[in-house]
Amino acid sequence: MRYSGFRVIKEALTGHLGWGPAWRDPEPKPQYDIVVIGGGGHGLATAYYLAAKYGQHRVAVLEKGWIGGGNVGRNTTIIRSNYLLDGNEPFYEFSLKLWEGLEQELNYNAMVSQRGILNLIHTDAQRDAFIRRGNAMRMHGADADLLSTAQITARYPFLNTADARFPIKGGLAQHRGGTVRHDAVAWGYARAADQLGVDILQNCEVTGFAIENGVCTGVETTRGPIRAGKVGVCVAGSSSRVMAQAGMRLPIESHVLQAFVSEGLKPLLPGVITFGAGHFYVSQSDKGGLVFGGDIDGYNSYAQRGNLPVVEDVCEGGMAIFPMLGRARLLRMWGGIMDMSMDGSPIIDRTHIDGLYFNGGWCYGGFKATPASGYAYAHLLATDAPHPTATAYRFDRFATGHMIDEKGMGNQPNLH
Ligand SMILES: Cc1cc2nc3c(=O)[nH]c(=O)nc-3n(C[C@H](O)[C@H](O)[C@H](O)COP(=O)(O)OP(=O)(O)OC[C@H]3O[C@@H](n4cnc5c(N)ncnc54)[C@H](O)[C@@H]3O)c2cc1C
């Protein structure tokens, strides 16, 4: 079924009896050409692009829970391509371009909203760094604008620019950045992949790999063994646990990241704002809630809820730029498991086991990467060669020293 405005009106007038399920609920087949483990945004996007761009239709996505139950449905929905390094910027700009055409391509309303993102500047040194970043973005074809304090005040009059502990001295804006409704991305990719023949198998947890003579020939699951020509792991926060089943130890730690939503307020925040003197980012959802977050909890964990010190830290960051936040009531908070890599950048690569591929290490920036990650991983799975925008995301960079350390923090996952 194709979705359209006409269809919505027709269904509204006829009691909504014509809507069918958005994707099938098939039984697992004994064998597929390619099995993707993990039905998050990246796994579903991978399956979609495998079918849509690389002609692979005997594909299954194995999800241990339900579609959208992982980080793809837990993030703060921010998309952007404001990266500095050559290894990153072309990839994230590719992703932003895919976001721009996504709803038409998938025939699904994912509420892609290019409302703009503004990174606040609080020191002269930070201004220099952001000018450099903005120039790097422009050199890669992305948009970037340096805004003065007066320009920021005109758009965001409530920001405390003058008598604050961290005065606002300007900002780096990317007007094409913004937000996307997170779980709709999972549903849109799932529906489009299903229509191209991909089997989406929910409640199907992978519990082991079939590895014979150094070749991965399939997986063990809670719904029985499934053979596969190629297996692509794409499980975000569960990366270390799943790859341990194949005997691999990854340069990744898992941490909790929390997110928060306030009660619904009148429209006040037209874009996304990030605080430059701490870790705090905020946007306003279409329902009116302020959606915000900050740092990860500082200890390793596979829990999907965090602790109070980070709640205090995030709210302090918010209050520093946005004192009226203190008047709003917090409606909800939750956590997701982040696959924090050692340099803050992801891995999309083959493993030393033939037929076994890995995609992970997205830290807390993986939502914006969803389309490009899926495209690049599909390219790798289909052709055995890295996608041109993802050639740097290799395992061996940690051995050779070619880290993609966007923040220059060293191998400290909790600082990325
Ligand atoms: C609170 C929070 C805020 C964030 N904010 C942003 C943001 O604003 N912008 C941004 O770019 N990024 C953000 N992120 C990061 C982003 O959400 C993640 O990097 C990205 O969603 C990870 O990829 P995914 O969607 O495929 O992960 P997931 O949705 O977590 O998918 C992985 C799937 O693998 C499944 N799985 C695990 N083990 C198995 C198994 N053994 N067998 C089968 N399936 C398995 C899981 O159930 C899960 O559904 C945020 C994350 C969190 C938690």
Structural overview:
It contains ten helices and 18 strands. The model has no long low-confidence stretch (mean pLDDT 96). With 416 residues, it is α/β, with parallel strands linked by helices. Helix 2 (41-54) packs across helix 9 (370-383). Strand 14 and strand 15 form a beta hairpin. The protein binds flavin-adenine dinucleotide.
Number of helices: 10
Rg on CA atoms, Å: 21 Å
**Total E-strand runs:** 18
- Strand residue content: 25-35%
Ends distance: 43 Å
Listed once per kind, the bound small molecules are:
flavin-adenine dinucleotide
What order do the helices and strands follow? HEHEEHEHEHEEHEEEEHEEEEHEEEHH
The secondary-structure class comes to: alpha/beta
Shape summary: globular
Share of helix, binned: 25-40%
Largest sheet: 8 strands, mixed
Low-confidence stretches: none
Whole-number mean pLDDT: 96
Question: What key phrases describe this protein's structure?
Answer:
single chain, 416 residues, alpha/beta, eight-stranded mixed sheet, 10 helices, 18 strands, globular, binds flavin-adenine dinucleotide
In short:
With 416 residues, the chain is an alpha/beta fold.
What topology emerges from the helices and strands here?
Layout (H helix, E strand, L loop, with lengths): L4 H9 L17 E7 L3 H14 L4 E4 L15 E2 L9 H18 L10 E5 L2 H16 L5 E3 L1 H7 L14 E5 L3 E2 L2 H14 L3 E3 L4 E7 L2 E7 L4 E8 L5 H6 L7 E13 L7 E3 L6 E4 L4 E12 L7 H14 L8 E12 L5 E4 L5 E5 L9 H14 L13 H4 L16
Parallel strand pairs: 1-2, 1-11, 2-8, 4-13, 11-18
Antiparallel strand pairs: 3-7, 4-6, 5-6, 9-10, 10-11, 12-15, 12-16, 13-14, 14-15, 17-18
Bound molecules: flavin-adenine dinucleotide.
